[in-house]
Write a structure and sequence with these properties.
six-stranded parallel beta sheet; 45% helix; binds GDP-alpha-D-glucose
Length: 459
């Protein structure tokens, strides 16, 4: 079996990788550790030397080689901030209103993909298998082929793939589709995403189905499949269990019988946080008997703070949280805690276990790992309730959650009411069914299924 080469926009260098790293980074590291391999990507630094001249930063840790490069300010702006995060991210999350398209950014995006390909190619060995991750690198396979690569190239998209009519709003969508077909295997979070990708191609050109899951278009042959990403439930259970830190014990006592709602995600407009604040307000308005005996904690660490739309949503949340607390709070009760901070992973899993309800209502989400982590952190004998947006990829698997339309405040308010009054028997039953799914579709199974398919293609 050939060496595994993982390519992602950001790489976690050995010093930082396992401490506090999320499930995905750990899952990929496990794969690299098992069979030995190379992890290639951007180290998160801005350099003054132009990309072509800058030497790679190479580090070896056991049987993993890390090869990282920095980006110039101009490349970072065009490729990362602009095209990846102000064109693809909003469009693929159905937020065409937030797309700010500039041809210069598209060119910068292609340029950085080419630059990365020229840096990776000399490091590749003949029987390597390459697994590329996410929306920053849609044209990477085509750029690597230009270098002369014959390697099996797999790609996994972590975010949704939009319906064709939405994709078509991007001036370069035809080129994006054509370039993506240079991969041998394209993996998506859900069947819905995989179908949307194929429908977009079929709309543009002749799409031939060679056999189930194998297609031809633009002169390329490629495999398409859904691989829903999972978590490691056992490691989360271990983090969540055990004694609470003294500060949290005090908070628990202070809360008494009050119901606790938790939500946690990067501060991103796709996560539907302002809409959720309003749904919570609707709950307080419609069911006043619950005022004083419920508390909603929103954890939302800043991400991509340099992008304008992210600054706007941060401001909006501060205003809304203040308004809701000002309107409904009393001298002895604060209805909404909004924490714009990053929490330690171990503490976060303990907080999940302590809370009665998780309110996870993204407007669109590729999968949503927080929903899965919340379930894995629960006490199976007395679990909390998961309220989940039907527009998160996770809703396809977690059908025993209270599934809601995040745009419908009244429906979300009703689901909060249902969650606060749900019997223990029903909570245990729903949790057990969902945990059964999660314990089969783990992060290990996700990467093994993807890599098995990729290795099979290369035989
Ligand atoms: C993308 C796709 C897809 C969050 N806040 C803190 C913290 N987190 C951790 C969570 C979880 C991870 O970050 C977030 O994963 P999600 O899946 O929920 O969302 P995205 O970041 O948008 O991820 C998504 C995913 O890729 C994987 O394919 O599911 O759809 O958008 O692990 O726990 N971790 C810590 N402190 C925080 O404050 N330690």
């Amino acid at each position: 079996m050939g060496r595994l080469v993982v390519v992602s926009n950001r790489i976690a260098l050995p010093d930082h990788s396992k401490n506090g790293a999320g499930g995905l980074a750990v899952g990929l590291l496990d794969a690299l550790q098992e069979q030995g391999g190379l992890w290639f990507g951007w180290n998160g630094e801005i350099s003054k030397i132009t990309g072509e001249e800058e030497p790679l930063q190479i580090e070896q840790d056991k049987n993993i080689t890390y090869a990282a490069c920095s980006l110039t300010q101009n490349d970072y702006d065009l490729y990362y901030s602009q095209f990846s995060n102000t064109v693809i991210w909003p469009a693929f999350h159905y937020r065409l209103d937030l797309v700010e398209y500039q041809r210069e950014a598209w060119e910068g995006y292609l340029h950085v993909n080419e630059l990365l390909a020229t840096k990776l190619f000399p490091l590749l060995q003949q029987d390597d298998v390459v697994w590329v991750h996410d929306y920053h690198l849609l044209p990477f396979a085509a750029a690597l082929r230009e270098q002369g690569s014959q390697h099996p190239l797999g790609f996994f998209l972590h975010i949704p793939f939009p319906a064709p009519e939405v994709l078509m709003a991007l001036p370069d969508y035809q080129e994006i589709l054509r370039l993506m077909t240079a991969y041998n295997l394209l993996g998506f979070q859900t069947e819905r995403d995989a179908k949307a990708f194929l429908a977009a191609i079929a709309h543009e050109t002749e799409l031939v189905t060679q056999e189930e899951g194998v297609y031809q278009a633009y002169g390329n042959t490629f495999h398409v499949h859904d691989y829903p990403i999972g978590i490691d439930p056992e490691s989360i259970r271990k983090l969540a269990e055990g004694p609470l830190p003294p500060k949290m014990q005090a908070i628990r006592q202070e809360l008494g019988d009050a119901k606790n709602i938790i939500a946690c995600e990067r501060l991103d407009y796709s996560k539907g946080i302002p809409e959720r604040f309003l749904a919570y307000e609707s709950f307080l308005e419609k069911y006043p008997e619950h005022r004083g005996s419920i508390r909603y904690t929103q954890i939302a660490p800043t991400s991509r703070g340099e992008v304008q739309a992210y600054q706007a949503i941060r401001h909006q949340l501060e205003t809304e949280a203040g308004r809701i607390n000002g309107k409904y709070g009393t001298m002895s009760w604060t209805p909404l805690y909004y924490l714009n901070q990053h929490f330690d992973r171990r503490l976060l899993m303990k907080i999940f276990r302590l809370t009665d309800i998780a309110l996870i209502t993204p407007l669109r989400d590729g999968m949503n790992l927080v929903a899965k982590e919340y379930l894995a952190a629960q006490d199976p004998a007395n679990p909390g309730v998961l309220i989940l947006s039907k527009f998160a990829g996770a809703a396809c698997e977690l059908t025993e959650a209270l599934l809601v339309n995040p745009y419908d405040r009244d429906e979300v308010a009703k689901a909060i009411l249902h969650a606060t009054t749900m019997s223990k028997e029903e909570r245990v039953r729903r949790h057990a069914i969902m945990m059964d799914t999660l314990s089969h579709q783990t992060i290990t199974r996700w990467r093994e299924t993807f890599l098995d398919d990729l290795y099979k293609i290369s035989e």
